[in-house]
Design a protein that fits this description.
The chain is mainly alpha-helical and 235 residues long. The protein has one domain: Growth Hormone, Chain: A. The chain contains 8 helices and no strands. The longest helix is centred in the first third of the chain and has 32 residues. The radius of gyration is 19 Å and the shape is globular.
């Protein structure tokens, strides 16, 4: 019996995905920077809500620290994701959609850095306000990345990526697929976390400002990326 046919993507979609890979890897780098500083100075994750939900549950049963920052992170992320998804659905064309939306995310992250610099992150209300702004920005960002729909980069979920690497390797009985971008995602995440933590040891607001600059660079790269050779106007 012959092996089942493997579904293939249209050539223009494959080219679009490849063009977006470096853009989204920069987004992953910035995300690692943001959440490393958030964890060290705010005690929560603003992009990886699994971590914040675990912290929220732990704080509810007497583990030191308040559950409010984690609750604020989850709530603001939900609001940002809802706004981002709704706005993106109203756009009739996908051309240049990703870079334009990433520019907005960069502005929101920069606003979070400004909030931290002005109000501080070691006392109320500065910590909660900073969490809310950054988590809202990350909610918008996930809406953008999901809309881009690039395989293996639709969400910077290291657990899923590591599993896919193993499952699609000879050790897992599979054939390697998109190994470069998967390894790139893990590397960008680690590099972002290391960079963010290093800067945050000096000043957390500077970490978030630097992450905003990386997101702005991703937006610029998205504008400069070539369109698919077929002449379609997807983005």
């Amino acid at each position: 019996m012959s092996a089942p046919a493997v579904p293939t993507e249209p050539a223009d979609e494959v080219e679009r995905d490849r063009a977006l890979v470096p853009v989204l890897l920069l987004v992953v780098l910035a995300t690692g920077m943001i959440d490393a500083a958030c964890l060290l100075h705010l005690g929560v994750f603003t992009a990886y809500l699994t971590g914040s939900l675990i912290l929220f549950g732990a704080h509810l049963v007497g583990v030191p620290e308040s559950p409010l920052p984690a609750a604020a992170a989850v709530g603001a992320f939900v609001v940002g994701a809802a706004i981002g998804a709704r706005v993106l659905r109203t756009l009739r064309t996908r051309r240049r959609l990703v870079p334009g939306a990433l520019a907005l995310v960069a502005v929101l992250v920069l606003a979070g850095a400004g909030t931290a610099a002005v109000l501080g992150v070691d006392e109320h209300p500065g910590d909660l306000a900073t969490v809310a702004v950054l988590a809202g920005a990350m909610g918008v960002q996930i809406a953008v990345v999901r809309r881009a729909a690039v395989p293996d980069l639709a969400m910077a979920a290291a657990t899923v990526v590591i599993f896919n690497l193993v499952a699609d390797s000879p050790a897992g009985g599979g054939t390697p697929v998109r190994t470069g971008r998967r390894v790139g995602l893990l590397g960008a995440l680690v590099a972002g976390a290391a960079t963010g933590a290093a800067i945050a040891r000096w000043e957390p607001a500077a970490t978030w400002a630097a992450a905003a600059a990386v997101l702005a660079a991703a937006a610029v790269l998205g504008i400069l990326r070539p369109e698919p050779a077929t002449g379609t106007t997807t983005g």
